[in-house]
Amino acid sequence: MRVQIYGAGIGGSYLFMLLRDHAEVGVKEISKAVDCRCAWGIAYKQAKELYNLVGIEFDDYVLSKPKLAIANGIEMKNKNIVTFDRKKLLSDLWQEIEFKDVEADIQVDATGTSRALLPNIEMDSIYFTVQSIEKHDFDENIYAYGRRTGYAWAFPLGDKRWHIGAGDLNYERAAELVEEMRKFYGFSYSEKSCYCKAKIRMLPPSKCKPIVYKNIFGVGEAIGCVSGFGEGNAPSLECAKILADCINNSELEEYEKRVLKNFKWIEVEHEFVRDLQRNKKLSALLKLPKIALIERKRSATVNFSVTSLIRSLR
Q1: Alpha-carbon distance 213 to 141, whole Å?
Q2: Contact present, 130 and 239 (Cβ < 8 Å)
Q3: Domain ranges of the chain
Q4: How sure is the predictor about 300, in pLDDT bands with cuts at 50, 70 and 90?
Q5: 203: nearest Cα among 172, 164, 232, 234
Q6: Which of 82-86, 243-247, 283-287 has the lowest average pLDDT?
């Protein structure tokens, strides 16, 4: 089997590592170096297990294990989300990747929001993000601040470094949302060691079809493998593992079905978020038990009522 992967982010680089001993694999990536965009938070248990399969000790890249996740002032006990040195991890992986063209049987679209190979999504949903790395003397918790059209975050990176940013309907609104979060939590202005803009797709896999088009197979954010609350690293790894298993077992016809089945929880999260954004209180309330079960397993103990969360959003 000959496989050409387009995109060497979290999903594409991991897929290469999974396949390199079983297939002829080439990778194409337009960036010359790994940047600092988004993606500093990840579900620890999943990341550790998945990277262990390719001989990578994930603990070597962990920067912080926050005790609390605080959303609009509402505290939750963080169980599984850590921040990690995404830039160093990918830079190390790029040293092992073969960046080349192969005459491929299969092409993989791991290009994130660009979705460079797969057909465009008719009703796409893209958030525009602004983000920076700054120094702050704060307790190392995860801080989030949301409103109906977007959300802002502050992730601790250790050594008083923080990744601060926001995603909203456009870059201007995202920048405004960062300022609102600063005021809400008290993050003052600080010298930025990195500043950039990016995009994130906020649609579940079922809304990102086609997942497979001719001999092109989508992976990760290109096909909506991002949680409703914005974490796309672990889902991208899981998605790459599903595709690698399908390739190695000659079961490519099963790929789309397995993606949709494995990420049903993402569908639930996105429906919940849409209900909150549209102020559908009863519908959101009915989904809250499922959300609590999902998050208890993946990330944090949810200990707030949907009413308090809705009241905190504007």
Answers
A1: 42
A2: no
A3: 267-314
A4: low
A5: 232
A6: 283-287
Q: How far is CA 35 from the centre of its chain?
A: 15
Angle between helices 86-94 and 10-19 (to 10 degrees): 40
Question: Is it true that the peptide bond before 204 is cis, omega within 30 degrees of 0?
Answer: no
Distance of CA 306 to the CA centre of its chain: 24
SS3 306: helix
Predicted pLDDT at 293: 77
Evaluate whether 137 touches 153 at the Cβ level (below 8 Å): no
Whole-prediction pTM: 0.91
Confidence of residue 286 (pLDDT cuts 50, 70, 90): confident
Residue 16: both structure tokens together = 């290469």
DSSP 213-279: ETTEEE-GGGGT-S-TTS--HHHHHHHHHHHHHHHHTT-GGGHHHHHHHHTHHHHHHHHHHHHHHTT
What would the two tokens of residue 62 be? 């962990």
- Buried/exposed code over 190-203 (b: 16+ C-beta within 10 A; e: otherwise): beeeeeeebbbbbb
> In degrees to the nearest 10, what's the CA dihedral of 215, 266, 122, 201?
-90
> For residue 95, what are the contacts with CB-CB under 8 A and spacing of at least 6?
none
Q: What angle (nearest 5°) sits at the alpha carbon of residue 153, between those of residues 147 and 154?
A: 150
Q: What pLDDT shows up at residue 273?
A: 80
Model pLDDT for residues 194-203, shown as the tens digit of each residue: 888 999 999 9
Number of residues in the chain: 314
Please state, in angstroms and rounded to a whole number, the distance separating the CA atoms of residues 37 and 155.
Answer: 13
